[in-house]
Amino acid sequence: MGGNQTSVTEFLLLGFPLSPRMQLLLFGLFSLLFACTLLGNGVILGLISLDSRLHTPMYFFLSQLATVDITYACNTVPQMLVNLLSPAQPISFAGCMTQTFLFLIFAHTECLLLVVMSYDRYVAICLPLRYSTIMSWRVCITLVVASWTLAFLLALVDMVLLLPLPFCGPQIVNHFFCEILAVLKLSCADTHFTKVVVLSVAALVLVGPLSAIVVSYGHIVWAVLKIQSAEGRRKAFSTCSSHLCVVGLFYGTAIIMYVGPQHGDPQEQKKYLLLFHSLFNPMLNPLIYSLRNREVKAALRRRLGKGRPS
User: Fold this and answer.
1) CA distance 181 to 202
2) Tens digit of pLDDT for each residue in 146-159?
3) Following CA atoms 58, 46, 145, 163 in sequence, which dihedral angle do they give, to the nearest 10 degrees?
4) Pick from 119, 277, 288, 289: most CB atoms within 10 A?
5) Is 91 helix (H, G, I), strand (E, B) or coil?
6) Residue pLDDT, tens place only, 10-36
7) What phi-psi label fits residue 15: left (phi over 0), alpha (psi between -120 and 50 degrees) or beta?
């Protein structure tokens, strides 16, 4: 079995088997979207770093989300762009495993960061007088480090089961990157147990954080409804609207991908949903926060020299 495993030293990513003209068109479109992703998240990071008014826990967590979005896109999109120009360009076995591992880390981290951000909004709205005590910088850093560490360990569980498997052909991955389930299909060993563990970890990472977010926002809605003034309720909801939009995009895609109704080829559906997840979500997140967040827009105007001097 060990000899068979070394027989596959590289994989071919099938990507999107379209006509050369359509692939060239997609290359241009995806390159533009990728550039927007880097620019948008880079602007968010720059604003938070340079503007002292954004040095708060909420924007610290947002900077972490922007970092994840940049790394998330950089892990999958460049390889996809290469494949659109050169469909026969292989990826090494080590490169494929690394891409899988990093994708899992970034996906898990984003799930956990969204929970942390919902907890921050819960404390800000439900326990405003104790906010500075509860959400101290020590607590914020601990929450972020814990999110990255737990994401790393969960991804490591999947990789510990994936790496020892023998791969003796075929070597064509039906995806635009080395997605773990697509890679598992190429193993010439029994992968039933590994698939169960991978799907169980995915369900844990999705259901657990989503449940925590729902509980947090249940308390937030209850607290907001008890506010007497309409202006107070509007301001309270406005601080959560951007985060809710991001949560809806992230988990909406994931739920459709894993539990939604399927038509035609499920593998092809998941491929296109993961494309949205890997390319469009990271691009839309900074737009959502910049367009719906008054403080971010004010910081951007100050940096562009259009705001009032402070």
Assistant:
1) 11
2) 999 999 999 999 99
3) 130
4) 289
5) strand
6) 888 888 888 888 889 999 999 999 999
7) left
Q: Which residues of 50-64 are buried (b: 16+ CB within 10 A; e: fewer)?
A: ebeebebbbbbbbbb
Alpha helices for the chain (secondary structure H)? 2-5, 20-50, 57-85, 93-126, 131-134, 137-162, 180-184, 192-225, 230-259, 266-275, 281-292, 294-303
User: Looking at residues 94-114, what average pLDDT do you find?
Assistant: 93
Cβ neighbours for 184, distance < 8 A, ≥ 6 positions apart? 162, 165, 191, 194, 195, 198
Per-residue pLDDT band at 135 (split at 50, 70, 90):
very high
Supply 240's token pair.
């959560």
d(C-alpha 3, C-alpha 160), whole Å? 19
CB crowding 172-183: b at 16 or more within 10 Å, else e: ebbbbbbbbbbb
